[in-house]
Structure formats: structure tokens, C-alpha cells
Design a protein that fits this description.
The structure holds two protein chains of two kinds.
Chain A (H helix, E strand, L loop, with lengths): L2 E5 L2 E3 L5 E8 L8 E6 L5 E7 L6 E3 L7 E6 L4 E6 L8 E8 L8 E4 L3 E5 L2
Parallel strand pairs in A: 2-11
Antiparallel strand pairs in A: 1-3, 3-8, 4-5, 4-9, 5-6, 7-8, 9-10, 9-11
Chain B lengths: L8 E4 L5 E6 L2 H5 L4 E5 L6 E5 L12 E6 L2 E6 L8 E9 L4 E4 L3 E5 L1
Parallel strand pairs in B: 1-9
Antiparallel strand pairs in B: 2-6, 3-4, 3-7, 5-6, 7-8, 7-9
Classes of the chains: A mainly beta, B mainly beta.
Chain lengths: 121, 110
């Protein structure tokens, strides 16, 4: 069974940086695009970023463009999200999610349990 | 304001059939698959099915859906108390070049 395990969340001051990781198991990782989705306290789901299986293509939501960087290491079956210049409005649970295919986006079919990021002074 | 529009709440009694709508535009629902997710309180979202007939094993066939033009809907038949959760629709948007979600519908089983 495919499993995704996020880590790296925590309490960080505004303007700070944090790197989230998502370790995947029981799959050929490079065959699948991946996404990050976040959920602010009491709010709905918000897509953050996506990356193709080969890491050749990356996509970002406007609120994080220029501040967040998505990457992956297929040799380690791990997805990353480097978050810089963090703001209070970035406070959320961050989920990683597996796509069905390598370079097209139909469905996020497996989700991790999430890691919490709190941006506060 | 979410790109996809869902009613904020829905309710039904045990055994009833409930539907949840999801409205979008040509660049998302109009040309791409719609996926539905269930989020139980305090849990991560769980993929239910997509309009491209993708459905994980273990997801009850009480959950079904349809898509027409720029709208989609989720139907839950034989409502059970364990179905009480938030439900989200999502689709890739070719114009925004990213995923868009509905604001979520909180389903209450009375």
C-alpha cells in the first residue's frame, strides 16, 4: 500500500524559512507527479505546488510564487517544499499528495497525514 | 473565494440520498476530470472517486458522481452516520495551471 509521510513542520517566526519533506513508500516514485496542498485552521483545502515525476516541470499557486520551491529526489523517494519569507497566512497543515500519472494531473489519489506549520512571533 | 463553488452545508437522515453540487468553468471542470474527497474530522483528505471512473478499492459504491458541462455532483445513497464529514471537489485548471478546489461542503447526518 502506497504511503506518504510528511515531516518538517513546526513553529517559525515571520520571515523565516522551513523545509518540509514527504517520504513515499511502496511505489516507483519517479512515475508519479506530486503536489502539496495546505489547509489553514478551520478553512478549506488550498493547492500550493506541484511537480512532474521527472522534476522537469513545476507549478505554483500565486500566493506562494517566488517564496516556495518544490523539488524531489527520486533516488530517495522524497518530495520537498522549501518555504522562505514565511507569513502568518502560511499557517496551515501541509499535505503531500500523489498524482495518478507522471506529467498530467487528473487526480490526487493518495494523501499523507499532514504536517503543521505555524508562523508566529 | 474558491474557484469551484460548493454549498457550504448539506444534511440528511440515515438511509436517505444526498447530493452535493460543484460548479466551475470551462478551463477546469469543462475540460478536466473532477475528483471528490472526503475529510473526516481531524483527518487527512481521502480520495473517493473521479469523473474519469477512478475509484480506490474500499470506497463504498454508495458514493457516486456525475459531470455535465462545467458542473459536477456527488451523490451519497443509504446515508450513514459515518458519512458525516467535509466533502471537497477539485479539478486541474488549464488557465490557472494548477489545482482548484471547492470551498467544501459539511455534511451532517441528522
Amino acid at each position: 500500500e502506497v504511503q506518504l509521510l510528511e515531516s518538517g513542520g513546526g513553529l517559525i517566526q515571520p520571515g523565516g524559512s522551513l523545509r518540509l519533506s514527504c517520504a513515499a513508500s511502496d511505489l516507483t516514485f519517479s512515475n508519479f507527479a506530486m503536489s502539496w496542498v495546505r489547509q489553514a485552521p478551520g478553512k478549506g483545502l488550498e493547492w500550493v505546488s506541484a511537480i512532474s515525476g521527472s522534476a522537469g516541470s513545476t507549478y505554483y499557486a500565486d500566493p506562494v510564487k517566488g517564496r516556495f520551491t518544490i523539488s524531489r529526489d527520486n533516488s530517495k523517494n522524497t518530495l520537498y517544499l522549501q518555504m522562505d519569507s514565511l507569513r502568518a497566512e502560511d499557517t496551515a497543515v501541509y499535505y503531500c499528495a500523489k498524482e495518478l500519472y507522471s506529467s498530467t494531473f487528473y487526480t490526487m489519489d493518495v494523501w499523507g497525514q499532514g504536517t503543521t506549520v505555524t508562523v508566529s512571533s | 473565494q474558491s474557484i469551484l463553488t460548493q454549498p457550504p452545508s448539506a444534511s440528511g437522515t440515515p438511509g436517505q440520498r444526498v447530493t452535493i453540487s460543484c460548479s466551475g468553468s470551462y478551463s477546469n471542470i469543462g475540460v478536466n476530470a473532477v475528483s471528490w474527497y472526503q475529510q473526516l474530522p481531524g483527518r487527512a483528505p481521502k480520495f473517493l472517486f473521479s469523473s474519469h471512473n477512478q475509484r480506490p478499492s474500499g470506497v463504498s459504491d454508495r458514493f457516486s458522481g456525475s459531470k455535465s458541462g462545467t458542473s459536477a455532483s456527488l451523490a451519497i445513497s443509504g446515508l450513514q452516520s459515518e458519512d458525516e464529514a467535509d466533502y471537497y471537489c477539485a479539478a486541474w485548471d488549464d488557465k490557472l495551471i494548477g489545482w482548484v478546489f471547492g470551498g467544501g461542503t459539511k455534511l451532517t447526518v441528522l
